[in-house]
Amino acid sequence: MEEINDNLYHKIIQLYQETSSVKETAKKLGTYPIKVRRVLITEGLWNSNTSVQIGSLYARGLSVAEIAKQLFISEKNVQSYLPYSRGQYGGDNRSDEAVRSEVYRERMHVAESSQIKKLNQNTNQHTNQHMNPDKEMENNRMDKLDILKERTRQLAEDRPIPYAIRLHLELDMEDKALGTNELGILVQYGKMTTNISRDIIVPGDITLHALHYAINRAFGWQNSHLHSFHPYEDDYNMMIKSGKLTDWAKLAGMYFRFPCEDYEDIYWDDDYKAGISVKNWMRKKYTGPYYYGGTREYFYRCQKDVKELYEWQPTLEIRKSFGEWMDECRELTEKTGDKDAKANMIKRIAPITEVTITELADSITFEGGFDELIERLPIYDILLMPGMIQNFDSWDFSNRLILKNSEKEEICLAPVTSPILNAIRYWYDYGDDWNVKITATACYETKEKYKASGNPIEPMEEHRPVCVDADALPVCDDIGGIYGYCNMLEVLHGEDLEEKESMKEWARGMGWTGRKTNPPNIL
C-alpha cells in the first residue's frame, strides 16, 4: 500500500479541523482526496457505511480481494478505505491517542466552524465564464423559486398550502432503555418534565431541508454531523408494499432520494464560515422563502439513477446480508475448526426487476439508505395534518409527465405528492444516534385563523419558525448520545471539582450553557 510522510499526515488532521471538507483539505495541501480520507479513517475522524463494512471485514482477517468480492466493489476501492499502519506514515513517537486527543481539543475551540461541508466551489464550471458568479447563483435560486411557485399553482384549488403548522418535536428514546438513574438525572439536572421536546410553529411552506436547521437550533446542535429524514418502519413498509425495487422506484424523486455519497450536492448550502454567529447563520437557513439548490433530489435525476441501475445490473447475484454471512462463517469455523473457513455468499441470481430493496442493499454497497426522504419536499406534502386520513392507495402513477418550467432538467417537478406519514423520524449524528419524532399537532389554513389562535404573528410575517413550548434543557454535539448527556449532567453536578471544571469548559466549547432559554428566544 502507499506510504504517507508523517508531516503530511498531521497537516491533514490539522487542516481538516478548519475546512471540515475532504476535498478542500486535499486541494489546499496539494494531495489526493483518497489520501486525506484514509488519514481521517485512521484517526477515527471520518466514516461511512462503506468504510465501516470494509473495516469490519478487514479486522476479521479477510484479504483485500475477498472484501472486494463480498462488497461487490473493486480492490482499489477497498484499499482506499483501509486505515494506514504506523509504518506507512512515519515513525513519530506520539501515540494515535495523543494525536486524536489533540485534534479533539482543537475541535472544541472551533466547534462553531465544524460544519459538514463548505459550499460547493464548482458552480462556475457550469456557468458562462463571463458571468458574475453571484449573479449566476441568484439566477439559479430564482429558477428554483419559480419551480416552487409552479407547484403552488398546481395545488391552489385542490390542496392549498396552509399559512402555518404547529409541530411537536420529541427526542425518540424508546429504543434506549433508559433506567431509573438516567431518567432521574434528566428530571433533576436536565430540567425535564415529561420528555426532551420542543413545540414549534413553522410557515406552511417550510421544507424538510429548512426544518433540519430549525431542529438543530431547537435542540442545541450545530450542524456538525450528517443527518437524514425517514418514515417510521411500519409506514415505510406500507409505502413499498411488495418490498420490491420496482415499487420503490415509482416513488424515487417523489418521496425518496436515490442513495448516493455525493455529499457536496446533498449538503449544497453548508457555507458556514468561521467567525460568524452560528445562531444567525442557522436562522437564515430556516427563514423563507425556501428552495432546494442541489440536483440529486429532483424527480428527473432520481429516475435517471434508477434507469442507470437497471442498465448496469439487468441481473443480480443476490447475496446474503453481511450479518447473516458472518454468522454462517462463524458456524462453519466452529464446525470445521478452520478459522479461515468462508461460507458461500450467493443466495441466487435474479433479474433486477424481481429483486427486493433488502436484497439489493445486501448485494450492492450503497451510501445511504433507500428510506431517506428527499428534503426539497415542503413538510405539508408528506406529513399528515390533524384530521387527515392515512391512505397508501392514493397515488396516481398514470401521469408521469415532467413539467419543464425551467431549462434545467435536473430541477423539474415531480408528480405532486400526497401527505402520507403520521410521523417523520429525523436522524442526526449517526454515532451519537439522536432521533427526533416529528408530528403535526395543529394546522392553520389562513392568516386569519392563525391570528385568532393567539400565537406569535411576527415570526410568521417574517417567514420563519418560532418555538412556543420547550421541555428540558438542550442537549449538545459529540456528547455520546443520551447516555453521554446523562453522564455530563451527573459530572457537572458531582463533587469532583477538577472533573466538574473540565466538563464545564468542554460543554462551553460546544455552546452548552446549562441555562434554560425562554421558548420564543430559542429560534
TrEMBL record:
Residues 189-238, 407-509 form the Plasmid pRiA4b Orf3-like domain. Pfam families: PRiA4_ORF3. InterPro entries: MM3350-like_sf (IPR024047), Plasmid_pRiA4b_Orf3-like (IPR012912), Sig_transdc_resp-reg_C-effctor (IPR016032), WH-like_DNA-bd_sf (IPR036388). Gene3D superfamilies: MM3350-like, Winged helix-like DNA-binding domain superfamily/Winged helix DNA-binding domain. GO terms for biological process: regulation of DNA-templated transcription. One of its GO terms (molecular function) is DNA binding. This is Regulatory protein, luxR family. It comes from Anaerosporobacter mobilis DSM 15930.
